[in-house]
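Rotation project, supervised by the postdoc (A.L.). Task for the rotation student: set up a whole-complex structure prediction and record inputs and outputs verbatim in this book. Inputs entered:
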Amino acid sequence: MSTPGETAGETVDSAREMLPDNSFLIQYPHVSRVVRSLFLTAFVAFGIGAFMGVLQALHRTGVARLVDSADYYTLLTLHGVLLVIVFTIFFLAGVFAWANTRSLDRPPVSKRFTWFWVATMSVGTAMAGIAILAGLIPSTDISADVLFTFYAPLQAHPIFYIGLAVFIIGTWLAGIDWFRQYLAWRRENAGERIPLQSFMVLTTMLMWFIATMGVAVEVVVFLIPWSLGIMPAPNPLLTRTLFWFFGHPVVYFWLMPAYLLWYTVLPKIAGGRLFSDPLARVVFVLFLLLSTPVGIHHQYVDPGIAEGFKFIAMTNTMFLLLPSLLTAFTVVASIEHGARQRGGTGYFGWLKALPWRDPAFTGMALAGLMFAAGGFSGMINAGMNINYLVHNTIWVPGHFHLTVGTAVALTFMAASYWLVPRITGRKLYSRPIGLFQVVLWFIGMVFMSAAMHRGGLAGIPRRTAEPQYPQVTFETVAGSVSSLRLQLAFGGVLLFVSALLFLMNVGLTAMNNKPARNLDSALPPALSGPDQSPTVLDNLKLWALIAVVLVILAYSLPLYSIVQGAGLYPAGQEASPAVIAPLLEVIA
Amino acid sequence: MTATEAEAETDSAVVGEETYADGTLVRDPDIEESLSQDEYDPKGTLALLLVYFLILALMWTYMYFVEFLGNGATVIG
Ligand code: HEM
Ligand SMILES: [Cu+2]
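Outputs recorded:
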């Protein structure tokens, strides 16, 4: 993996001379390299994923069918896996490596260990990616058209599952690295409050350790032995439940790094200070506690899970709204603080005093706005009864393109405009292009997501190459289905153009010969600091323990009854590609 | 760095000669003032959140018409 910043020796040197001694790149050149390498993988995955996205948007709307419909699931798997597993997790690993080091003010304990987890994550990704791509080459019998939700009875080649397992292990090692870094700090700073960014990294990783237990069991105990032909097909409901045990908290694994950026970086960019450090800590603790025991809300229509368990999951989910609403308050109040310090006045007039010309600010602000809209459709999804209306329709992708696809992805792009100069020492190539790009993403998403939501209400299914059926007419609430299709495709094209502009801008920044200047990496202190909060907030062991107990309470009975119901390996269960392949031949 | 983050109420040097993000947007000390916690009342945030809750309530009402009046009854269980 090449590291862009190190290629043109002279420029980097001159660039670095201009940087203040306290800048991150000067203090931690090694961590900066690690972050660059993680970002590079993230951006490559983002580019390929976005390309698949526009292909899908054009294909399923019938605007342009550039691939065979039989290959649609390969593209869709690639899109899902590359964007929500590779892009997001590599990028957040970079953010965490930066944030933990910056806030603890010390490097990781061992350089070799750090590179070891980077390599582990990368090898796992390559294996899974190759397995998916091989699905496009019929002469190989390798494929992994199982979508990013990869549960049975869809079956992938073992290399896909093994790659996933290796990747997950890589993320665990990363977490261990950040904990070791923290413990080393703790030895020298007994009795001090955990610096805020580090606190956020650690609580997120604790959540991740718990969440990935589900997927680890699913993949290692069931899917790998099954795909190798050693064991029979597992109970699909069991693998679904184990998947969603992980599948909901992974949402917060994407979101919490975005929150980290909103809480700690955004106030600075807005010229203000974080409103409340204790509130930020409370939010992260709530996520640690509540992220996992809600996964069953993805299974409201699964037969075989009692309604009572679904009801508990729904109740937990509604509680989970709390930290997000707290975040809305704290983050907006911090931005407003910046606006008022810079002369803003009135109930709404202060909005004019914000640095809207800065793509880092505008991108994050628009991402937050989209998240507020996603909050609405999320509340619809979360309701057990109203979920029936939208389940498995294109509404659902409409929802998560607002959340992970914009709140997270656009925040990451915006943060890149701020962070990439800090880890390369190079000046951002173009601020106006950056600004145009983040606004374009927002507009593209308004079109695509609105069309998806409305199409879903009309009953148009998701995960479908050709959702056009002669026997069925979809009835929309307002507007025609063909106009919805055009809006979806148009939005998809805008998004793709925006993604290309982003990649170009970041790529040219990495090669920019102009040095970055004034890259101060200190963040202003919170208005209300941590010493006004109870120290129990920093008791990570306690929170982790409670989180585990909540998970056991939420999952032991449902899992028990699933295993009691159909057993671990129900007879007559078959892998799905065996069924799907001949079926596609009939259609084609 | 750790100190600035972990300690409360260090008002020093929060507003000053500093530039944003990529160094292009320079702060203007003439119009800037430092607002401490006591002086700051986030009424704009309150206004925005009220608008948001209003929109949520309207959208929910709209969903009610789509779900219950637009379709037949949904069977649960
Ligand atoms: C260029 C921008 C993008 C476009 C045009 C796009 C388009 C689409 C479309 C049309 C679908 C629905 C396919 C179907 O159900 O038949 C889809 C699914 C999906 N998208 Fe995107 N998307 C984009 C960016 C993103 C981003 C940034 C993320 C997340 C970070 C994302 C995550 C997903 C996921 C997880 C699915 C569901 C895959 C599945 O059903 O297995 N997309 N996308
Ligand atoms: Cu969920």
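Student's summary: Residues A 50, 53-54, 56-57, 60, 76, 79-80, 83-84, 87-88, 147-148, 397, 401, 404-405, 409, 462-464, 492, 495-496, 499 surround protoporphyrin IX containing FE (ligand 1) (CB under 6 Å).
Supervisor addendum: The first helix of chain B runs from residue 2 to 6.
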